[in-house]
Amino acid sequence: MRVQDFSGKNLDRIMAEINYDISLLYVVPCIYTRNLILNHLIDRISMVESVAVAMSQTVQPQILPLQPGVTPIADPPALMQPMAPGTQATFTLQELSRFDGKGGNPAYVAVNGIVYDVTNNATWAAATHFGLTAGKNLTNEFASCHAGQPILSKLRAVGKLETM
Amino acid sequence: MNTSNGSITCPEYKARLNTAASLVETVKTQIRQDVLRKRNLVWLELTGCSGNIISLLDGSNPDFKYLISQMTHFIYNNSLLASEGQNAMEQLFSIPGSDYILAVEGAVATKNNGLYNIIGRLNGKWITALEAVKTLGEKAAHVIAIGACATHGGVSAARPNPAKCVSVQSVLNRKVIKLPGCPCHPDWFMGTIAHILLYGQPELDSRDRPLLFYSTLIHDRCPRRSYFDKGIFAEKLGDKTCMFKLGCRGPVTRIDCPIRQWNQYVNWPIEDDTPCIGCAQFGFPDAMEPFISYNITRGVKK
Amino acid sequence: MSKKIIINPVTRISGFMEIQADIENNRVVDARTEGLLFRGFEKMLHGRNPFDAVYFTQRICGICSTAHSMASTLALEDAIGVIPAEQGRYLRDILHGCEFLQNHIRHFYQYTLPDFVKLPEDYPLFKAEHSDFRLPKEKNDRLVKDYFDSLDLSRSAHEMLAVLGGKVPHNHGVFIGGITTQATADKIIKIKSILHSIYQFINDRMLSDVYTIAEYYRDYFYIGRGYGNLLSFGCFNGYKNLGTLYVNPLVYIGGETSLFNPDNITEQIDYAWYKDKQSFSKPLEADPEADMSKPHAYSWVKAPRYNGLPFESGPLARQWLSGEYRNGISTMDRTIARVLEARKVALIMNTLLENLIPGVSVQKEYTIPETAVGKGLIDTTRGALGHWLKINNQVISFYQIITPSAWNLSTRSSNGLKGTAEQALIGTPVRDINNPVELGRTVRSFDPCVSCATHIYTGGKHINTIQVIP
Question: Given A105, B106, B296, C329, which is the most exposed site by the fewest CB atoms within 10 A?
C-alpha cells in the first residue's frame, strides 16, 4: 500500500476500497486472485487500524515511533516504542548526505531529528521518492504530505540528526 | 481456474477483458433495443503529443469503429476530422447547447494568455486551447481528462514548464473525471464512457479516478512481487527479477497494468524487463524520475 | 488582386497548424505554414538523468514516439561510447519498422483518404464541405471499406511493437544496446504472423487503393513539387552482414546524389518565435528562448537547412535516394511513395526477423561519463530526425532536436527561401476559394507532425510556417 495516501481525510476512500475488495471476493473464483485481493484487504484494514490508534493518541504531541526491523503488516503499529539500543548514532547533515542510496551506500532520510533507513522501502525506488532524494533532512516535506500518518513506525531508525 | 467448454480460462484474465467489454456489450444491446441513446462525444486535443487518440485507435475491446458507430456520435477530433479550417471550428463550436461528453487530452498552455497553443481559427480569430476548454468544459454533461497532461499537466508541464501548462481541472470549476496514464489505456476510456452511458459517472476515488481501474497499486499485483519480498533485485534492464533498484515506480502507482496489459493485452513494461515509470501516477514525469538508474545500492555495505 | 486564404486547424495531422495562402487568378502565389503549439522539450531536458531521455523524448509525439526513442538512444550510445551488437540493431530496427507500418497505414487511410474519398456522412467526423470527390461509387465504396478495415491493421502494427516493446505509444523496449528484453521463439513467430497479414493487406489492397486515387486525381502529379531537394539520414542500413536493406545517408539536389554530411546542417530562426542572437546556428550550438513578440515571426517551427538550403525529407526522399521509385516529385508521388515504402519496410522486417537468434540478451549496466557529447541521426517515418545532446556533471546540459516536420514545414529563412511545404504550395490551382481542398492535400502529403516540429527549441523569430514532426 502507499502510505502517503493514509490520513483521516482518506478514510472514506479506504473504506470504499475495502468494500470493493469484499465484493470482488464474492465473484472471483481464481485462488491466486483471491489471495491477492486478501493481501490488499489486510493491508487496507491495517491502515484503518493505524488511523484508529493515531486518533486515540491525538492529545499527546506525536512521539516519534521507532522500531528496528521491518514491521509485519499484521502487527499493530508501535507508536511509542523506545529506540532500540545500539541505534543511537548521530549524523550531521553533511554525514547524512553520504547516505544517498548510491554506490553501495544505504539510503537514509531524516524526519523530526530521527534518521531512518529507506534503502529497501518500496516507495523509495532508486533512492528517490516523488522527486525527493535520499541523504537529506526531509522534515518539512514529510509534514506537508504525511502529517498524521503512521508511516514512520514502519521504518527502521538508525540514529539521530545532530541539531546545531 | 474455470474449465468450462474444456478450455481453461483464468477468471482474472476474463475479468480484465470484461470490465470494459461487458459494459460495452450492455451498451450495445441497449442501444439496439432503443433503451439507450447514443450521446455526443467531443475529443479535444490540446497541449500534448496527441498520443491518447492514437492509443484509442489501438483499442480492441471495444474498438474505435464500435465507439463511433454504436456508442456515440463522435463530433470532433483534430486528428480524424474530415473537414478543416472554419468548417471544422463551426462543427466544434455548434455543440454547446446540446447534450455532450467532453474528452480532453493534453494540458492547457497558459503562457501569453494561452497563445502557446492555438487549436484553430473561428471567424478569423485565433482560438487558444485555454479558451476552447473553458467554453466547452463548462457546458458539457461530463468532462473526462485523458492522459497525464490533461489530468495534471504531465510532460507538457515538466520542469521548467516553458508553456506554463496546467491540468484541465485547474481551469474548470466543475467535476472532471481523471484518467491519468501516458498514454491512457483505451480500455480505461472505453470503460468510463460505457459506464457514463449506462449508469452515469463511475465511482471515483478522492482524486477523481474511476475505482474500476485505479484502485490497486501495480506493486500489489506485480508478478515479480515475490522477488521484491525476498530482496532479489535486477541489476540491469532485461533481467527477470524485481526492477525496484533500477527505479520501478510500481509501488507508488495505482493502476491495473499487471492484469490488463497493453496493445491487445500482449505485454506491459515490467514484462518487457523494464521498470514502471509511474506514467499513470499524478506527478509524472518530474516526481517519477529518475526512470532508470544503475548505481543504486542493493546490499548495504557494513 | 490577390486574396488570402487561411486554413486553421489543418485537421488530420498530428498537432496544430495554420496555412495562409495568397491567391491570384485561382493560383497560390505565396504561402506560409505556421506551427501553433509550443512545449519546449529542449529546456525540459536540462538537468535530467541522461538515460531518461529515451522515455522522455518519446512524449514529443504520440504517433511517432518510437522515432524519438531511436534517435535519443543513438545519441546516448554516441555519448557514452556503446556500440550495439548486430542482434541488438536488428531487434531495435524491427520495433522501428512496426512504427513505420502503423504510421503509414494510419496516415494513408485516416489522414489522407478523406481528402479524396467520400466517407459516409452519417458520421459527424466525416462531413466534408468540398465537392471534389471523383471516384465512381463502386471504387469509392471499396476505399471506404478499406478505411475501416485498415484500423485493424494499424492496430496490429502497434501490437507487434508491444510484443517486444512493452507498450505503445511510448514504448519501453528501445534502449541503449538494442532493446530491453529478449526475443524468444514464441514472440518472433507472433510478430511474423502479424507481419504476414499486414503485408498481405498492403500488397492486396493498400497499393491498389493508392493507384486508384492516383488514377482519378492525375493533376496531383503536377502539384506540390517544392524545391525537389531530397535528404535522408539513412535507415535500415549499414548492417555488418546484411549491408544496407533500405537507404544510406544521402542528399539529392539538382539531379546529383551525394553523401550526406551532418556538419552541413544549420537551423535558422529568422521567422520563428525565438529570440535570435545570430540568424543561424549548428545543432550543438544554440537553444534560443521563446519570444512570441518577435516581429515578422509566424511559427514555432524553426528552419533547418542543409548547406543553407531547404530540403524535403520522408518516404518520397528515401524511395528516390534508394532508387526504388523515381517517377517524380509531387503531392501524388509523395503519397504513392509512402505506400510503396510500407511494403518495403514489411519486407525488410521479414529479413531482420529471419536473421534473429532467439533468446539473445543485449543489455548491460551502463555508466554515465562526467561530460560527453553525442548525436543520433536517423530517418524515421516522416523523414530525417536528429537528436543532439551534451552531458555535464552526469546530467543532460544541452539537448537539441530537429524533426522531419521541421525540415518539411520549416519557416522561411533570411535569404528569402521559403520552407519546403511552403514552396510546394506555390502555383497550386484553387478551384473554389471557399473550399480550398487542394492546399490541405499537398500539405498532408508531407505527413506533418506539428507536435514534433514545435516541440522544442526556444529561440528566434517567428516565421509563417507550419511545423511538422517526424
Answer: A105
